[in-house]
Amino acid sequence: MREDEARGHEEPMEVAHQRGQPPIIENPLLSAMAPVDKVRAARVTNIPGGARMERQPVFKTGGPGRMDPVPRITKASRPKPSPAHRLGEQRKAVVPSLAESPLSYVRLRLHFEGGRLSIVGVREVPGPLVVPDYVGTGLSYEVLAEGRRIGLGSLPDANSRRAFTNIDQKEAALGHNPTELDSYDFDVRVPTSELSPERLPQTQIHLHQIAAAPSAPLGPEPLRAQLPEVVKTVASLSSIDLGQVEPSARAELARILGVTSPGRRPRRTTRST
Amino acid sequence: MPDSMTQILSAGPPGTKINIAVLGDGFAAGADQTAYNNKVQSLLIDGLFNHDYYYEDKQAFNVYRVNLISVDSGVGTKTYNNGTLLNTVTKNTALGYYYSGSWSHCWLEPGANSGTLIQNALNTWVPDYNLVLILLNNPGFGGCGGGGQAVLPLGVTWDTIAHEFGHALGGFGDEYCVSGAYAGGEPGAPDLTIDLNRATVKWDNFIDPATPIPTGTGTCSGYTAGPRPATWDDNQSVGVFEGGGTMNTGIYRPVINCRMRSNLPPYCPICYTTMKRKNDSKMARTFYNAYAGDFDGDSKSDVLVHNANSIITYRSSGASLDIAFSAVERVPGSWQFQPNDHFYVGDFNGDGKDELVVFNGIDWIMPYLGLLADDGTGKLHLIARYDGSMPGWQFTANDQFYVGDFDGDGRADLYVFNGTNWAIPYVGLLHSTGVGLQLVHRYDANLPGWQMRPSDQFHVGDWNGDGRVDLIVFNGPAWIYPYLGLLISDGTSLHMGHRYDGVMPGWQMRPTDQHFVGDFNGDGKNDLFVFNGDAWIMAYLGLLRSTGSQLSMVRRYDGNAPGWQMRRNDRHYVGDLNHDGKSDIWFFNSLDWSHVYLGAGISNGVDLSVSWASDWIGEWHIGTVDRFEPCDYQGSGSRADLFVHNQNWFGMMRASAPVDLDRIYYRFIHNYRYGRNW
């Protein structure tokens, strides 16, 4: 393991901490502490001026900015143990709710059919988005903008349907009766800040089949560049064309991008990541 | 009754977590909704998220329970006979599903509008979803999964869902066998292979070199390659076993019995590790905030790790750790965890197990203090909470707490100091009743013989050996010269044992003096180590013995301790490294040399002898980012051990001329029978 930071000066390992070595002089401009038997209280306490602590300090009660007085605690008023039942919610400080977050991401619903992808749904979700740095085997999506990855996710069973039952049922011995689907939907997620009308033509969505999971976290390069031997692209959307988005989703994507209708001058929304 | 949504597991913002949306179909208003709620609770919270991997990684998940009100109770049904539809009963339900009970029809099927109704419900009620669980009001026992959904009737149990989530989240293949011989290429699933080469099989790092490969051959085999080792574990010992992916032969799985074979066992090391890696970014967990304590009363130090709105405790087995308790968002009682929670460990009820005081002065509209204790089943719950104040003490953000049994009743108490939030500083003595805390004395502005200042520093220790934990208070910068006071507790109040003005015996005090408490001569009274690395030409370390009410210099090291050249950035930790009842001291320096050093300074009562290691302690590369917690994870009876931790790594170090590493964990704490996750 290695989690380290820069160190000090070089010293020969055979010298450090060896008996007989002289003390390290940290700052020659400073003085040395007096020998143990020469340390005298009087020498210090005779320093003139400065604030000194009282021997028997006295404090006047009352005044602003103070705790309330300690109540007189009698046997009767002694605090009882907290009730066993559940206490109420702790009261939240006044902080913006997630809905008021300046961050958001866009969930695009993709439809796969006949080797083609199309956008059939759009939803803006408040809050930050964590783009993972790992994919497992099976289907995965990747969103690239100008060659840079802006979205990634595993879709292990997007194209399958399977029956299941409890292990103690006789049908459990029959397996899952799996069906591989010719058409299916899945969701991709991208930070809103990564989408803009100008970038949409350069925004690509790829559906990959991953044959073997990477052994280390992924870097920022496209998957096909990092894992050329295990990534097979199943389908791609080479750009996002608002005009090609399903009508019910188009308006929402246009709203998120601040475009009143495809082709008009964009107007950004306030959210970004 | 309108439709509604309740978040029943809240780990964080949806874009940072895996979101499970649960929808109900065929549940009418009233009792049906109660039944639905109970079923969701038993399946997910009490079932799935109360077991092994899902329990451990709760922090990666949000669960949204959507209560959809159906007009009719129960879902529609379809009856098949050999594939022929005999009968359809349609009901007016929220999602329009039918249950058929036919395996060949995936047990159930959607109605014509189910897809739209589901999408509408999701868009209306949940911010985001990665997995959708649709619960049908039908007593059947078969479900249909895929495409990020699992649709199931009431008869399906949590372990079946855990298996299904292995497909839906992990992309795992089945490890059970139905029939046939596999004749395809290398499967993509991480838990299936046709590769019998030890060097290239995809889970090679988990196979003990002593394990034969293949380990089991024949139809859906168990261990057939010679005598099965006595320590073999069918669920956790990894080899290469024939049968899997529903095929009897020609394909291999990693263990004899994984959850992907028979649902109830935990995931095998391969499936577990895949899940952990895939969801690591959703967990966003670090080892920064780790607290040592004996939470189960077995005399071995366990550890609590706090992250954001979750805690997890790990039980020490003496040389390794295992998960003991995991909680996200809150524990019953209730205490809601937040990033700025601070934990204080002590046996506050005298039951031989450590409890936790938790304080948060930042994240809420008012400060909260809670006392968390074992509920009798190994889980923590809140037994007392103080919202904003308790009689005699008003909590504020900068309250500082010190754990010590100041009244000697065998229960840890709390000293609390606040020097900054009020016009004057305060010290409170909060006595533990075992079920709560109560203020027994408060000092306003002054302690006996001491004028408090905001920059006062406190340490706890029993200076006179009477079993009551006392205080020292030090102030370096507030006065013309530093002061140090030994405050003695009589159980309900303090008196000044001795005050040192500017000098202690043999020691000229400076504002940057650092103090460490320990009984270095083993006389039952706590003594004082004092260090200063930057106020003088060289670093100094003093060993001052407590006489009961005063301090006496036993030994002062000027520049060098025996076997250790002291430097300005030396860090120190007190323990009893050689189990002799005398407190010793760890030395650590990562800044002043080109190598990093960790030294063990053993006290003989009047002197220290230091041995050290540099740079590597076993596989642990010691460095500036490391934090150390003296503890006793071996259960030796003395604090001879260290938990060491940083963002990604957690280690268990044991004093051994000078130190050895017992365990090292990366990203998560898990004990593999062979291999590891990096």
Plain-language structure description:
- The complex is a heterodimer of chains A (273) and B (678).
- With 273 residues, chain A is mostly beta strands.
- Chain A has helices spanning 41-45, 223-226, 247-257, and strands at 104-113, 116-126, 138-145, 148-155, 160-165, 179-180, 184-191, 203-210, 231-237.
- In chain A, the strands form three sheets. In chain A, strands 4-3-8-9 form a four-stranded antiparallel beta sheet, with no helix packed on it. A three-stranded antiparallel beta sheet of chain A has the order 2-1-7. Chain A has a two-stranded antiparallel sheet with strand order 5-6.
- The longest helix of chain A has 11 residues, at 247-257.
- Chain A is elongated, with a radius of gyration of 34 Å.
- Chain B starts with a strand and ends in a 12-residue tail after the last strand.
- The model of chain B has no long low-confidence stretch (mean pLDDT 97).
- With 678 residues, chain B is mostly beta strands.
- The longest helix of chain B is centred in the N-terminal third of the chain and has 15 residues, at 31-45.
- A six-stranded mixed beta sheet of chain B has the order 1-3-2-8-10-9, sandwiched between helices. A four-stranded mixed beta sheet of chain B has the order 5-4-6-7, with no helix packed on it. A four-stranded antiparallel beta sheet of chain B has the order 13-14-15-16, with no helix packed on it.
- Chain B has seven helices and 52 strands.
- Classes of the chains: A mainly beta (273), B mainly beta (678).
- The interface between A and B is large, with 123 and 150 residues.
- Strand 5 of chain A pairs antiparallel with strand 9 of chain B, so a sheet runs across the interface.
